[in-house]
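Apologies for my clumsy wording, but can you show me some protein sequence, whichever is easiest, together with the matching structure tokens, please?
=====
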Amino acid sequence: MKKSSKQILSLFVRYAIIVLISFPNLYLFYAIFTPLTLYPVFFLLSLFFKASLSENIILLQGFSIEIIQACVAGSAYYLLFILNISVPDIKISRRIKMILLSFAALLVVNVLRIFLLSLMVFYGSSYFEITHKLFWYILSTIFVIVIWFAEVRIFKIKQIPIYSDLKFSFQGLLKKSH
């Protein structure tokens, strides 16, 4: 198979995976990352407090902390997935390492974020609302960007997600029109 045919096949397969993995409503990300988020947060809280767990609710000495989908940040995992999959010319083994590293980094940061916010609720911090909004609107995006740039540096990624594929596609169209 010619190199350009391999690139076209790779492009099609990668973007088909990006689309298919999002159905239905990022279910796969929430199915995987809800327990991976919930249990470590519960563990950390139970180190310091008497805590119990009921489905996705952590009961903490008179307080209840519900881990909802927004807390799990499935869309942030999906964005990292898109960034990782939409970079061309990466071997599967390396791509898997990249995805696992980015997901692990986001998971650690997210668990620590929820743990910190839980402590703020428990101790009645007047800064909870502003901290929660700050995490929600600004820091969550910054976390994803920092994780991606760390990946670019660690894995020495030279291509640009999506852009490199668009550039390849348009160059192919231009060659055919001449």
Q: What stands out?
A: The mean pLDDT is 90. The radius of gyration is 20 Å. The CA atoms of residues 150 and 156 lie 10 Å apart. Residues 3-165 form one domain.
